[in-house]
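Sharing a chain and its predicted structure for anyone who wants a worked example. Both blocks are below, sequence first, tokens second.
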Amino acid sequence: MQQFDYIIVGQGIAGSLLGYQLLKADRRVLILNDESIPTSSAVAGGIFNPITGKNLDKTWLADSIFPYFKDFYLSLENETHCHFYHETNLYRPYANEQQRRHFLQLTDEYDLDTYIRLVKPDAYKEVENHLGGLFTTSAGWVDVPLMIGVLRKLFIQSNAYHNERFDYQALEISEEKVIYKNFQASKIIFCEGYYASQNPYFNWLPFNPAKGETLIATMQTYSIKEIVNQGAWIIPLGNQQYRFGSTYVWNQLDWQTTKESKETITSKIDKFLKTPYQITEQQAGIRPTTKDRRPFMGNHPAYPNVYVFNGLGTKGVSLAPYFAEHMLYFLEKEKDLMPESNIQRFYSLYSL
């Protein structure tokens, strides 16, 4: 029987970065991942943005998280010789005069100078911006599928990866260890994203999954390097390719693309994009969002060596590096998790 310190189930962004942190800590890790099923990480837009929403809300823990993940991703790029971190910044053209006044009032009221500066009218010819807009620094995107693919190669080279669908019935749990088929470990950590809804150990957690769709387009005469966001967003992918997004649907949780979502996205894009484009691809995923918009981290209330690291939702690329380290310290040094992320806050929902 093969011996490990940790078994991780799932190799999305949560499982990938936690597995990487544990390997860096010289722990024996086995990642079990089913490559045959669709995942949100495989189609994620990967946007990180410190200031979001109609009220210019600062992202939770932005002042701590953003410097951390920038250093983390740049270090990982250097180690893997792969470029997947793109700090492009983000431009929000005002949609109308009412929004312009609202945003200017918010920038006066709140201390946002670290992240925001004003842009004069008609700064870009490819999009409608006759009223000007806001430029957000420290924003950009991570090529999540590329990063996960690179980390998978690293895990395979480290003999830390196995491609298979996890069978919950084959898991044996005792006080000292867990056994899964021919693998034995001290602890098991479930990082399954949306598929946690099928996990008998953690399906009681209050997930609020949201389906999202994006489009891949080509444009020949578009030269804006920043992400542009006005109700819908445009991410420059390189080689005249762009990602348009995205939708949020809570009542139809499947992996199928729809005509309705395509029309929703293009109708919003058409309101501000002046440049001709051609749609070449459409993708769908299910985000593992939570009802309180905070991660799910910690150990099972009845099985102390069974853990979860999930619920990173729409801000996965921002949260995952920071909280993977927190999870590492929790597992290895028994350091307390943040109460906002610890699943102890929902233990009352669990029943034997």
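Comments welcome. Residues 2-43+145-205+292-349 form a domain with the FAD/NAD(P)-binding domain fold (CATH 3.50.50.60).
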